[in-house]
Structures
1.
Amino acid sequence: MRHELIIFDNDGVLVDSEPLSNRILAGYLTELGHPTSYEDSLRDYMGGAVHRVHDLILERTGRRLPEDFDDAFHERVFTAFRRELEPVAGVPEMLEKLAAEGVPYCVASSGSHERIRVGHRKTRLDRWFGEDTIFSAQDVGRGKPAPDLFLHAAERMGVTPERCVVVEDSPLGVQAALAAGMDVYGFTAMTPADRLAGANGYFDDMGQLLGLLA
């Protein structure tokens, strides 16, 4: 491989959570008096940490979300995850190959540590990720599109940014990877390639990834 570390986004790349979480987010914001469609949620919040929701709602309306918003939203999401969440097609097979070949990899997600772990337990991806390979926006001051999370993951994994490659499916994630000075491949199963501008390449099937990285 040309790279020494693969950094995976989680939602939409490893676990097929974006449809679930964005429908829940759109519905909850609408309940709270901030009409939001599923498409609005994908456009504005996909790939971002929950603080982005607070920031945009305050910026647009001058109103703050309730203090218990994060807890209530996450409880709805976790309930849906435990009932419905599946891995992205081809991910278990891809991770098995990486592990067998000794290729270093980790996950760096805008989601909380709890969200990552709930999703991984349900999809049985937890067998592929040790505690020392899971990084969350909770670990840094700013989430994507800031580069902080990816830089933190690289530092903890002992690899320089220019030797890392990121796998992302959101515009915010691609921006963060580029800002970190890393190569990035855009996963286009849900997001059109033109929304992931700047990526080094694109693919829509996890079975294609290892060929791109060779």
2.
Amino acid sequence: MVDGSTSRFQAGQTGLIVRIPDAEPVVRAWRERFDPSAQVGVPAHVTVLFPFLDESRLDARVCWALADTLGSHHAFDLRFESCGRFPGVLYLAPEPGTQLRRLTEVIVDRWPEAPPYGGQFAEIVPHLTVADGQDDAVLDEMEADLLGRLPFTSRVSSVDLMVHDGAKWQERASFALLK
């Protein structure tokens, strides 16, 4: 979600994420050093939609619509067994990615004014960022370490709405998926 430099985070920005607590023992040390989002309160996660609506638009109707939309989707398991890269970015690749993409698509269908990553990228690539803004040598070292700690599986049973307060990201609400 919140990949990239902290300077691009602004008070009132929001995002929808799937927390991956099972990833914390695997990625915490690397994320604390090399992922700016970890330094501003974002847990290990896979983004569903960033940016979402500005905080000023988050009223009871939006929260009800999120609960209704997300609550019609079943909880699912993700397996993390490989790494992937974007330029300067190392991430863990969740499999299967289809359910994550579907969650993004249904939110965008409901709020088309909030395209994934502000419309910057055409393809939705679910990922758990471990490092951002690093050169290949650093990413190579991290990837070798991470591959020795994989695989792991994580259950996805909710989607969290996160809000940036100007300094940190805070959870505003959590929306349960069907059991």
